[in-house]
Structures are given as structure tokens and as C-alpha cells.
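Give me C-alpha cells for this 171-residue protein.
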Amino acid sequence: MKTFLIAALTADGFIAKNSDHSPLIWRSEADRRFFIGRTKEAGLVIMGLNTAKASKKPLPGRRNVIYAKSAEELPHWKEYGEWEVTQENPHDLLLRLEKDGHREAAICGGATIYTMFLEAGLIDTMYLSVEPWIFGQGIHLFQNPREQKLKLLSVRQEEETVFLEYSVLHS
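Here you go.
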């Protein structure tokens, strides 16, 4: 299964100020359009509990898989039956989802989930939207220091947002 990471970053490299800080309040409309289009194309999003809480409800038109202990942790879980909760390791999860017919998965954050999938060697592509913000401190894209070689595939600018696409080079 092809797996890609998708994230909005500040110019100084943060995805949020803290775990309660939603990118929905600071990312650009251009990034929002790209995120919706690319994740709908994939049809499958995988995210952590804080990211799911920030979105407040399942992303429509996509299968929503959330790393959490139980559905009760999710906002409006009774109202929205589309949340699918897992604690599977990334390899097993992707194998199961591929058996269900999925060919592509969007890893949508946060840092814990990005780190888990990168360390497992399961990220093929990274879509990073660099936004014109500086937080000075906050949550980095990845939790643990790690060296990873990337190959730049494309760069484009829309409004004030720079979109970077990288291929993750696996050794």
C-alpha cells in the first residue's frame, strides 16, 4: 500500500503550539483545499486522538482510522459512527486495510503518529505545506531525532503557502 504523510508546518518547522492547538485555525485556505483533495483521493486517513479531536468529526468521504484506546475518547463518538479506532502496529494496520481494498493511506498526524509510521519505514511520500507563521516553539513534525534521506519531487506556491512533495528514500 502506498502511504503518504501530509502536514502543514510553520516557517520555523512546527505543526502546532501544543497538543490542543489545531492547525484548522492557522493553516491557509490553499492548504485546506490541498488537504481535502489529496486525502479524498486516497480515501483513507489515519490519525491520532488529538488530531481527531481537533477535526471534531470524521472527515467526510474518507475512511477515518484513529489511534485511541476507545471510541469514547473521540468527540461526538455516538453521533458519528464513522470513527474507526485502532491500537494495531502500523504494519498490521496497513495489511488489514489493504485486504479491505485500500491502495493508499494518508497519515494525517500528529507527531506521535508521523513518528510511528516513519520509524516503521512505512512512509513513501511526504506532502508538507509551509505556512507563513512562526511559533518560536511548539510541536515538531517528528518526536524523536531521526536521519532520513528525502528526494524533492515538486515545489509549488499558491498564495502565501509553499507546497513541498518529497519521496522518502528507503535504504
